[in-house]
Amino acid sequence: MPLFDVYPLYNVTPVSGKGAYVYDDNGTEYLDLYGGHAVISIGHAHPNYTKAITEQVNKLGFYSNAIQNPLQVELANKIEALSGCEGYNLFLCNSGAEANENALKLASFKTGKERVVAFKNGFHGRTSAAVAATDNKNIIAPINAQQKVTILELNDILGVKTELEKGDVCAVIIEFIQGVGGLDQATADFYEQVFALCKANNTMFIADEVQSGYGRSGKFFAFQYYNVTPDIISIAKGMGNGFPIGGVLIHPDIEAKYGMLGTTFGGNHLACAAGLSVLNTIEDEALIDNVNEVSEYFISEAKTIPQIKNIKGRGLMLGLEFDFEVGELRKKLIYEHHIFTGGASNKKLLRILPPLNISKAQIDVFFKALKAVLN
Ligand SMILES: Cc1ncc(COP(=O)(O)O)c(C=O)c1O
């Protein structure tokens, strides 16, 4: 049976990984500055991670959400401790789209309203309401298009005010650093005013931290650079270092009711063990400090390259903008220098999303290769 052909593929077959490296079926080593799309947080095959998963699967991999699962409680407490988001409740699911789907659903339950405000170049996933709130017509099927969504420009505070004051908006959903769209950020003023407008209009403020969360921005959450308290925070990617897990942090003002949300696989024992080992490693290895240190080094090195016109993003969620499309550059980095990087909907942007424990020496390898390709 052929695979449903929806992914354009690079001709590389990774079969193993270690830290910031993956190895293909010929034993060639690749430096991974893409992290499988911002997913690899603590590095490939981290020993804490493989141990935690192995031990857990040998005991109990899964049981449904009809029983006590102390691992979920431990994970929730650890997220609270490391993120500083005190008092929130955690609901666990399996992916970023699912996290946003649940976030939007909660916002609608809480407010009784149905329209969503989202932003140009935003990406929130490929399921029902999440894809409707995504600014990409090519991935919105007619069945999704029936959702009520208004897409506004980042920084259009008057637009947000006008829409929210109409009284039918259940949620504003926003990435504090856009991922797929190309690392754009709004101004601090904008985020803070949107938050105030949400408060004033009984609209839930949803921070989509699926990509920017878990330390990637240099703080646990990217919204923590600003003076806002989201009603709902969606998380996924870095949370499981590749194990499928997602979640929503839910402000205590939103009251739970039995059956309001639910999932078969979400929060299973194996996913929680993976998630706990990620958080323990982020803490024990001070990975957020490393993000900030390596980020500063990366940016200072990038500034010395004249072909780079703009450096975007924060932490280890970075983009290098050129005045040409980077497709060929990425191919040369992969095939000639064995370095994975990412692309964006902005075709001139090279995205850098390495494991959070990448070293400065590994960044040097990247810049040496980049200079060789550019010259
Ligand atoms: C900000 C953001 N939200 C949501 C998603 C969707 O996550 P998933 O692919 O796990 O459904 C992504 C994926 O790239 C993302 O970057």
Automatic annotation (TrEMBL):
Q: Which residues form the signal peptide?
A: none
Q: Which InterPro entries match?
A: Aminotrans_3, Aminotrans_3_PPA_site, Class-III_PLP-dep_AT, PyrdxlP-dep_Trfase, PyrdxlP-dep_Trfase_major, PyrdxlP-dep_Trfase_small
**Keyword line:** Aminotransferase, Pyridoxal phosphate, Transferase
CDD domains reported for this sequence: OAT_like
Entry keyword RNA-binding: no
Return one GO MF term.
pyridoxal phosphate binding
Instruction: Quote the Pfam families the UniProt record gives.
Output: Aminotran_3 (PF00202)
Q: What are the names of the required cofactors?
A: pyridoxal 5'-phosphate
Similarity-based family:
Belongs to the class-III pyridoxal-phosphate-dependent aminotransferase family.
Q: Which PANTHER family match?
A: ACETYLORNITHINE AMINOTRANSFERASE, MITOCHONDRIAL, AMINOTRANSFERASE CLASS III
Name of the protein this chain belongs to: Acetylornithine aminotransferase
